[in-house]
């Protein structure tokens, strides 16, 4: 069984000082770097997703004439209205400066269609269009993913659920994840939902040994 490490959205806007900063988001970067060093030693591929929105993205509250952090509907799907974040080619969309990006084997960008949000690194929220991630993993004969990153209750959760639905085995590294927690229990519930769907839950320490 061939594994890959999948780092979800370790970008400036989800870290301290960012537009959609997640509490303790920066704490995931050290863990990502430790995991990547282990991957190099074990010849395990590393892939990363990047939230990559056009400035006119309709998930942005300002573009949908509403207030950030409230909930509405976009394209027939429930939608949290977000502050402007991860705009293509802007500093907020860059990977965290401490992340050792030279170790990345593949980067998948998502959220590029302004009319629909895309939490999962595999599909947009309506499952209308696939990214290149599945093709890349299939070509590399990878069947198991270690997943960690930001945010637990959005992009990590939906990436893991899509991975499981496509037949990948998944291990979520909980210490490498942090959540938005619009409701305080959202991240815990997201972990439970991933487990219920078949994900294993572990920590970086348990993997690194
Ligand atoms: C994310 C909200 C909006 C995430 C992306 O990476 O979890 N959350 N866009
Ligand atoms: Zn986004």
The CATH architecture would be 3-Layer(aba) Sandwich
> What string gives the helices and strands in order?
EHEEEEHEHEHEH
Task: Count the beta strands.
Answer: 8
Shape: globular
Number of helices: 5
Multimerization status: single chain
Helix-residue proportion: 25-40%
Strand order of the largest sheet: 5-2-1-6-7-8
Q: Summarize the main sheet.
A: 6 strands, parallel
- Which fold name is given in CATH as the topology? Rossmann fold
Given the helix and strand composition, which structural class is it? Answer: alpha/beta
CATH C-level class is Alpha Beta
Task: Please tell me how large the radius of gyration is.
Answer: 16 Å
Unreliable residue runs = none
CATH homology superfamily = Isochorismatase-like
Estimate what percentage of residues fall within beta strands: 15-25%
Distance between the amino and carboxyl termini: 19 Å
GO molecular function: nicotinamidase activity
Family: Belongs to the isochorismatase family.
Protein name: nicotinamidase
InterPro entries: Isochorismatase-like_dom, Isochorismatase-like_sf, Isochorismatase_Nicotinamidase
């Amino acid at each position: 069984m061939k594994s890959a490490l999948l780092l979800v959205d370790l970008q400036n806007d989800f870290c301290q000082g960012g537009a959609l900063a997640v509490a303790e988001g920066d704490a995931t970067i050290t863990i990502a770097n430790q995991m990547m060093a282990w991957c190099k030693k074990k010849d395990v591929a590393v892939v990363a997703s990047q939230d990559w929105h056009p400035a006119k993205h309709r998930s942005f509250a300002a573009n949908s004439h509403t207030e950030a952090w409230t909930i509405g509907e976009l394209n027939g799907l429930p939608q949290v209205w977000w502050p402007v974040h991860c705009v293509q080619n802007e500093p907020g969309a860059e990977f965290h400066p401490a992340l050792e990006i030279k170790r990345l084997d593949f980067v998948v960008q998502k959220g590029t269609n302004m009319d629909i949000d895309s939490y999962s690194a595999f599909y947009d929220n309506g499952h209308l269009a696939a990214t290149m991630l599945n093709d890349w993993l299939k070509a590399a004969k990878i069947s198991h993913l270690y997943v960690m990153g930001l945010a637990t209750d959005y992009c990590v959760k939906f990436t893991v659920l899509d991975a499981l639905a496509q037949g990948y085995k998944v291990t979520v590294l909980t210490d490498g994840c942090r959540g938005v927690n619009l409701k305080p229990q959202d991240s815990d519930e997201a972990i439970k939902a991933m487990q219920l769907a078949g994900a294993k839950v572990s920590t970086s320490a348990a993997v690194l040994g």
